[in-house]
C-alpha cells in the first residue's frame, strides 16, 4: 500500500477539488456524506491517474462498501476518543499550552483577512476539514499557504492513521500530495519540524478556551 506522497504527485488534478473532497471525507460519516459519494466520484473522475485523486477514490470505495454504522464507530474511535489522531492542527504544534491560543488566533486572522465568510460550524478554526474547505474556496496562494504552513501537523496525523490501519490515512495522504516538496520519510522527521512537540500544560491557563481541554468531537462539522 503506497501511502507516501511524492513531489509533484498532484500536478494534473485541480487541487481545490482535492481539498474540498478531502474536507467532506474528513467530516463525520453521516447521511450527507454518503449522499455526496457520487458527486465526489464525478469530480475526481476528471483527473484520472493523479495520485491524490487515486487515494481519495480508494477511500470513497472503502466508505461505500463499509457498513455506515461501522464507519461512524471507527470515526468516533479514531478522531473523537483519542488525541493520537486529532484533526485539530494546533495540537500538533503547540499542544494544550499557552501558545495554542496564539496559533488559533493566526487561523482566525487568516480567515478574516481573506475576505471570505468562514463558517466554523462551532469548531475551532484549526480543524482540518475547515482549513481544507477554506483552501478550496480561497485564492490558491492564500489557501495553499494555510496548508503548507501546517505540513508537519498533517503529516503526523497521516502517520498516526497509518499506525491504526485507518482508511482515513488515504485522505491525509491525498492532502499531503498537494503540498510542495516530498513527505518526510518517517515520523521522527515530521516531528522534528513540529516545534514544540505536542505537550500538556495546565498551569497558568486562566483564562482559557474551555474547548481546548478535552479535544472536541468533530462529528458536527459540515452539517
TrEMBL record:
Which GO terms of type biological process are on file?
chaperone-mediated protein complex assembly; nitrate assimilation
State the source organism's domain of life.
Answer: Bacteria
What's in the keyword line of the UniProt record? Nitrate assimilation
Annotated transmembrane regions: none
> Is Chaperone found in the keyword set?
no
Presence of the UniProt keyword DNA-binding in the record: no
Coiled coil residues, start to end: none
Output the Gene Ontology terms for molecular function: metallochaperone activity; unfolded protein binding
For this protein, the record's InterPro entries field holds:
DMSO/NO3_reduct_chaperone (IPR020945), NO3_reductase_chaperone_NarJ (IPR003765), TorD-like_sf (IPR036411)
What is the protein named?
A: Nitrate reductase molybdenum cofactor assembly chaperone
